[in-house]
Amino acid sequence: MDLVPALEEPLKKVLGPPTAKVMAEHLGLHTVGDLLHHYPRRYEERGQLTHLADLPMDEHVTVVAMVADARLHTFASSKAPRGKGQRLEVTITDGSGRLQLVFFGNGVHKPHKELLPGTRAMFAGKVSVFNRRLQLAHPAYELLRGDSEDTVETWAGALIPIYPATAKLESWKIGKAVQTVLPSAQEAVDPVPATLREGRGLVPLPEALLKIHRPHTKADIEDARSRLKWDEAFVLQVALARRRHADAQLPAVARKPKPDGLLTAFDDRLPFTLTQGQQKVSKEIFDDLATEHPMHRLLQGEVGSGKTMVALRAMLAVVDAGGQAAMLAPTEVLAQQHHRSIVEMMGELAEGGMLGGAEQATKVVVLTGSMGAAARRQALLDLVTGEAGIVIGTHALIEDKVQFHDLGLVVVDEQHRFGVEQRDALRGKGKQPPHLLVMTATPIPRTVAMTVFGDLETSVLDQLPAGRSPIASHVVPAADKPHFLARAWERVREEVGNGHQAYVVCPRIGDEEDDPRKAGKKKSPEDEAEKRPPLAVLDVADQLAKGPLQGLKVELLHGRMHPDDKDAVMRRFAAGETDVLVATTVIEVGVNVPNATAMVIMDADRFGVSQLHQLRGRVGRGSAPGLCLLVTEMPEASTARQRLTSVASTLDGFELSRIDLEQRREGDVLGQAQSGARTSLRMLAVIEDEEIIAEAREEAATLVAADPELEHLPGLRTALDALLDEEREQYLEKG
After folding, report:
1. Helix (H, G, I), strand (E, B), or coil: what is residue 295?
2. What does the DSSP 8-state code read for residue 519?
């Protein structure tokens, strides 16, 4: 973070090229400073053992345990036909559970001599299952003897740091490397101003780095953690505060709707009244649009809370004020659907320049990559002349050819699906920076919003419009109770029998291109048995049409179909001509068919919490209650199954997003999926550290208001430069 010459020293000079290469490739660590900020994940205490019972599958783990017994077996195999093959099975225990280690072939000799019953050691490897038992195959290990100089020195503290490690580099090797560079910690420049540090009782940075890597007591770890968390929260919030400060200096055209213009005409046509939430959020947006600085607002709303209506009214207000509005959708299916529903909501107000169009009307055009040349030319012409007040499109809107007459507002639907560059390119289309409204149906806890979208003001829509129905969700354990799955298909038939429709969602398409068995390296037979490929749309649609849903009209939809075919399938489903739509997650966002009441999600454990919540929001959109069945083969005790149970137990998206975050790695939060940069959060837990983030945000705002260029805080400037290496700088700028 705070890289100064000693901390900028490349690791290859300090640790030697082979180790440095592995650290760079597998852990993204390049300098002494990077390594000092690679903190232990947890600490083992001598005499206290890891819970072997809780080991996660398929993850790289480090455990400290004792050898209970070791047996050498011989067997015949293709390589050793005369029974000369050797397999060493070692059982280790920690009092709570047992774990099998296996070594094969020539690899058995050393462990056979060293891993004698009663020996304690650290073991590292990938947890797999063989014959329904957990095992580590060929783990690396380090004996904890406490006699040789080296071991005593390295493990001298009572607390053994366990580092996030990889197959190529075990935790104890990282520990030794840290030991080598630890003296440089003394030269770390402190980013937090002294007054703030003393006021909050935080230890200086060099001391925090020593204590996090070589603690003598648990209190040392606490001191170091609270200090390092503050650093992360504070430096990030300063970066965001500077963005907000810079944005507030930008000019924009104020957009105030005419008193009896398009917006008024639209509101008069509405067959219902807006919810209080919609009215409140609209006011916040209109107030922002009326200022001479660009609006940067995040609109969060549950699936079906009426965000599109709020966004449409904002777009109409801008058209009223003489500008144009663009709405950016993540997929063609969604762009087409938004276009259809907006034109429907506006009626003759969307027929500007046409016979029968109302006098205040404007033109609403759609622009996607797969449009025919003539339609595309006309749409581009309507935009450049200003004839079209509203355009809805995919990233095709961003291409160089697309020119606007006067772009006043950009609405981005489902923020997390757009690369940062794309949003930036669209913002660059205005003569002055346009106002920006970002919509998401993924509820984001307050702290995450402060961290990820810290340069956006937030509005929340939390009531559902009248006429929406509740959705019942249930987990269907297909492996334990196959009759539950049979019952699920009966329920689908019942819904169709009552005149409704259903979705069946699968994780995969099932054509050659996405077949996991064709891709990558060959798997061992145990792997194959344990991890079958996820169910695929093409297979499932076929099995259902011939089996449990025989006689119903079943169609399929996935991302690799031709756009016209996709559109046709969606139109037939929307018109009620199809009973069951078997689809991938292309339907996750924004697909609106009020008559669809049931959804069966196959291999539901392969989806994330927020994805399941989004998918579920596609049913219960009309007056009939919705039903969502989460089918899984995962055993009851698994975390995947617990995740599904939590989705089934609540419809509150904010509650689910907390659960989701607690179960995922924090680093995922900071959008490095969009920026490609490593996460800068190593210590901060976005959910648990809500208070720290909120306080850091206040401190950062005060500090930036007083000294936007940070002229008096060189340490903080250095830390910012390191946090915002170019990629992250761009990420924040374009956010």
Report:
1. coil
2. S
* First-residue to last-residue Cα distance in the chain: 21
Question: What Å distances lie between residue 590 and 305, 316, 331, 494, 623, CA to CA?
Answer: 12, 21, 10, 26, 18
* Contact yes or no for 537/510 (Cβ under 8 A): yes
Structure tokens at 714: 């060189």
Residue 615's contacts (CB-CB under 8 Å, 6 or more residues apart) are: 503, 505, 585, 587, 588, 599, 601, 607, 628
* pLDDT above 70: percentage of residues in the chain: 81
* Confidence bin at 712 (pLDDT 50/70/90): confident
Residue percentage of the chain with pLDDT more than 90 = 25
Whether 471 contacts 619, CB under 8 Å: yes
Q: How far is CA 345 from CA 389, 469, 502, in A?
A: 15, 21, 25
Round to whole Å and give the CA distance between 70 and 111.
9
**Cβ proximity of 87 and 103 under 8 Å:** yes
Amino acid letter, residue 621: R
Predicted confidence at residue 733, as pLDDT, reads 46
| Spatial contact of 434 and 427, defined as CB atoms under 8 Å apart | yes
Q: How many CB atoms lie within 10 A of CB 654?
A: 15
Rg over CA atoms, the chain: 29
At 81 the pLDDT is 62
CA distances from 192 to 1, 374, 715 (A): 12, 59, 7
Would the pLDDT of 108 be above 70?
Answer: yes
Please state the rounded mean pLDDT for residues 703-730: 75
DSSP label at 536? B
Cα separation, 666 vs 313, whole angstroms? 36
Is residue 141 within 8 Å of 123, Cβ to Cβ?
yes
> Between 62 and 680, where is the model more confident?
62
Chain centroid to CA 614 = 13
Pairing of strands 120-130, 457-461: unpaired
> What is the model's pLDDT at position 210?
93
Do the Cβ atoms of 49 and 67 come closer than 8 Å?
no
pLDDT value for 729: 47
**Residue 721, H or E segment:** helix 714-723
Task: Tell me which of 515-524, 593-602, 708-717 is least confident.
Answer: 515-524
Edge-to-edge strand list for the sheet holding 580-583: 471-477, 626-632, 596-601, 501-505, 580-583, 554-557
Token look-up 């046709």 returns: 568
DSSP 90-157: EEEE-SS-EEEEEEEGGGGHHHHHH--TT-EEEEEEEEEEETTEEEEES-EEEE--S-SHHHHHHT-S
Residue type, 545: A
Pairing outcome for strands 98-104 and 85-93: antiparallel
CA atoms within 13 A on the CB side of 423: 27
The token pair that represents 729 in the structure block: 């700088």
- Residue 584 CA, chain-centre distance (Å), reads 18
| Paired tokens of 148 | 């040789």
- Sheet strand arrangement including 363-367: 363-367, 388-393, 324-328, 407-413, 435-440, 296-301, 457-461
Q: Which of 538, 543, 533, 574 is nearest to 556 (CA)?
A: 538
Q: List the one residue out of 448, 397, 389 whose CA is nearest residue 423.
A: 397
Q: How many CB atoms lie within 10 A of CB 397?
A: 25
Q: 645-696: per-residue pLDDT in tens?
A: 888 988 777 777 777 766 654 444 444 333 333 345 667 766 677 788 888 8
pLDDT 10s digits, 582-611: 998 877 655 678 899 999 999 998 888 878
Over residues 279-302, the mean pLDDT reads 90
If one counts every other C-beta atom within 10 angstroms of the C-beta of residue 218, the result is 12
Whole-angstrom distance, CA of residue 526 vs CA of residue 617:
37
Distance, in Å, from the CA atom of 576 to the CA atom of 593, rounded to the nearest integer, reads 9
Note the pTM of the prediction, 2 decimals. 0.63
